[in-house]
Each structure stands twice: as structure tokens, then as C-alpha cells.
């Protein structure tokens, strides 16, 4: 029996949210696998564009990604289905933790589990960074921009908003220079 597309969006993001620890960046490789590879709802370049918008918007990147993907696929109802699917697992887990945390927070098994989860989350974040960075590394000029933005962020502690605005400005500049060069070539 075929599911309604909005229900399928809800269930996909619910399962992603229910099985991923570590927040939005840890969820990105799983969102990519489900949306691009498994369901083939978006092409690779469309997914990268969604992530660019999600990173540039206020709020959690995984939630923003879910909303933008849902909206792109099914309009406002799809955005709501993906949004609810992505936030409901966290809400339920936080509710359960709030009820039971005082009893189990200092339990050695809980502390050991969280100690083991931390490196797994770091690995997921690095994997997302590598996977999503591959298209950027294909063109030398984009690699220069990437290294420049990394330097601004890691060394000079430039605010992320400034880096995003610089990225948008550099993209516009590259597009203008690229289009301007093509127009000049056509005229001669």
C-alpha cells in the first residue's frame, strides 16, 4: 500500500530524528542518504543548495533543511510534515529525559554511554563535512574561498553571519564575472 507523500516525508524525517544523536550536523549525512540516495527526491546539487539556504537561515540546520526539503517537494503541507517529523522525536526524548533524568543522570551506565556517543557524533559531523565539501573542492577558486572562510572562522573568530554574507557576495561576484566574461566572448 502506497503512503501519502506527506506521510512519507513525516516518517522519513521522524526516523532520521529518532535515530540520530548529535544535532543537526550529525543528521546531515543521514538526511543526505535518505533524501538524495534512497528516495531520490532531490539531486545532489539541489540538496547542496537546500543546505546553503538552511545554513544561512536562523535556527537549527536540520530543522531548516527539513522545512526547505518538504517545501520544495510538497509545498507548505510538505514543509509542515517534514518539520513535525524532524522535531517530534527530539521533543519526546527531551520530555522523557526531563521526567527520568534526576534518577539516571549519574548512573555509571548512562555516563559510559554518553562518553561513547561523543566520538561517534564527532565522526558523523566530520563525515558530513567531507561529503558536503566534495563539490566545493572540485574547482580551485572555490577551494581558495573555502580555505579563506575557514581561516576567518577558525583563526580570526569572524562571526558566522559575516562569513555567510562574504560567501554570498563572493558567489555573486563569481557569477557576475563568469557571465560578464561569456557576454564579452560572444560579442567579439
Radius of gyration: 20 Å
Order of helices and strands: HHHHHHH
Summed up, the domain count is 2
Secondary structure tally, helices: 7
Mean pLDDT, all residues: 85
The computed structural class is mainly alpha
Low-confidence stretches: 181-188
List how many beta strands DSSP finds.
0
Query: What share of residues is helical?
Result: over 70%
Strand content: under 5%
Give the N-terminus to C-terminus distance in angstroms. Answer: 60 Å
Envelope shape: globular
Please give the largest β-sheet. Answer: none
Q: What is the quaternary state of this protein?
A: single chain
Layout of SSEs?
Elements: H1 5-19, H2 24-38, H3 44-56, H4 61-104, H5 108-137, H6 140-154, H7 160-187
Helix pairs in contact: 1-2, 1-4, 2-5, 3-4, 6-7
Written overview of the protein:
The chain is mainly α. The chain has 2 domains: about 1-105, no CATH class; about 135-188, no CATH class. The chain has 7 helices and no strands. The chain has helices spanning about 5-20, 25-40, 45-55, 60-105, 110-135, 140-155, 160-185. Helix 2 (about 25-40) packs across helix 5 (about 110-135). The N and C termini lie far apart (about 60 Å).
Features:
disordered C terminus; mainly alpha; 85% helix; 0% strand
In short:
This protein has 188 residues and is mainly α. The protein has helices at residues 5-19, 24-38, 44-56, 61-104, 108-137, 140-154, 160-187.
Amino acid at each position: 500500500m502506497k503512503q501519502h507523500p506527506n506521510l512519507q516525508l513525516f516518517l522519513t524525517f521522524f526516523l532520521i530524528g529518532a535515530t540520530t544523536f548529535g544535532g543537526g550536523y550529525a543528521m546531515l549525512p543521514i538526511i543526505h542518504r535518505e533524501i538524495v540516495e534512497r528516495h531520490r527526491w532531490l539531486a545532489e546539487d539541489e540538496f547542496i543548495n537546500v543546505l546553503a539556504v538552511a545554513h544561512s537561515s536562523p535556527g537549527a540546520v536540520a530543522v531548516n533543511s527539513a522545512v526547505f526539503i518538504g517545501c520544495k517537494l510538497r509545498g507548505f503541507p510538505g514543509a509542515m510534515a517534514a518539520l513535525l517529523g524532524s522535531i517530534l522525536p527530539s521533543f519526546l526524548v527531551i520530555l522523557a529525559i526531563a521526567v527520568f533524568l534526576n534518577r539516571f543522570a549519574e548512573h555509571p551506565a548512562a555516563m559510559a554511554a554518553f562518553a561513547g556517543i561523543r566520538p561517534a557524533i564527532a565522526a558523523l559531523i566530520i563525515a558530513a563535512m567531507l561529503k558536503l565539501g566534495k563539490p566545493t573542492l572540485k574547482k580551485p577558486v572555490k577551494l581558495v574561498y573555502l580555505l579563506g572562510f575557514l581561516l576567518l572562522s577558525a583563526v580570526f573568530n569572524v562571526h558566522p553571519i559575516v562569513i555567510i554574507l562574504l560567501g554570498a557576495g563572493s558567489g555573486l561576484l563569481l557569477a557576475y564575472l563568469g557571465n560578464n566574461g561569456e557576454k564579452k566572448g560572444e560579442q567579439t
